[in-house]
Amino acid sequence: MRNDISEVVLSEEEIQNIAERLGRRITEDYEGKTPILVGLLKGSIMFMGDLIKYIDTHLEIDFMDVSSYVGTKSSGEVKILKDLSTSVDGRHVIVVEDIIETGTTLNSIMDLIEYRNAASLEIVTLLDKPINRKLEVDVKYVGTEIPDGFVVGYGLDFDEKYRNLPYIGLLKPELYQ
Q1: At the top level of CATH, which class does the domain 12-148 belong to?
Q2: Which tens digit of pLDDT belongs to each residue from 89-105?
Q3: Three-state SS letters, the chain
């Protein structure tokens, strides 16, 4: 599996430093507010697990499972496979993403959460890849920006594989083209 990676983009240590930095910012911004962190499955699960360890204020967690990808490309159509189990009406919501690329999925989720009358809505993402952006997204908490290339590991997958790598790496193109 590790031989399928051409280059490590973010090491385990770098990921932990990002989670800690973002967790501290969220702690400051949400002290006394009990936000709901909404993880977008499946890719965000490892990042969300590490991030919440560094948030030192009361919080709740929930998950949505949404899909817009076919292979390595966004289809442009967002499907909700699992909806929230918690009401966001009047609540402070932070959507937790692994990577933002086109912005299509995130815009749909944000519209839905705003429609459900959240008191506030912010986004935290580990990775931002603006080169592929189709819709603008206002992201308050960004871990790091990455260049073009297909990344896997630390929750990110190709065909449900590689999620269990402890770092994020570039997948060799011959494996997905």
Answers
A1: alpha beta
A2: 999 999 999 999 888 88
A3: CHHHEEEEEECHHHHHHHHHHHHHHHHHHHCCCCCEEEEEECCCHHHHHHHHHCCCCCCEEEEEEEEEEECCEEEEEEEEEECCCCCCCCCEEEEEEEEECCCHHHHHHHHHHHHCCCCEEEEEEEEECHHHCCCCCCCCEEEEECCCCCEEECCECECCECCCCCCEEEECHHHCC
Place of tokens 């930095």: 21
What span, in angstroms and rounded, lies between the C-alpha atoms of 100 and 97? 7
pLDDT tens digits for range 52-80:
999 999 999 999 998 765 555 555 677 88
101: annotated active-site residue:
yes
The token pair that represents 26 in the structure block? 């969220």
Domain ranges for the chain:
12-148
Marked catalytic residue, from 28, 101, 136, 145: 101
Distance of CA 76 to the CA centre of its chain: 18
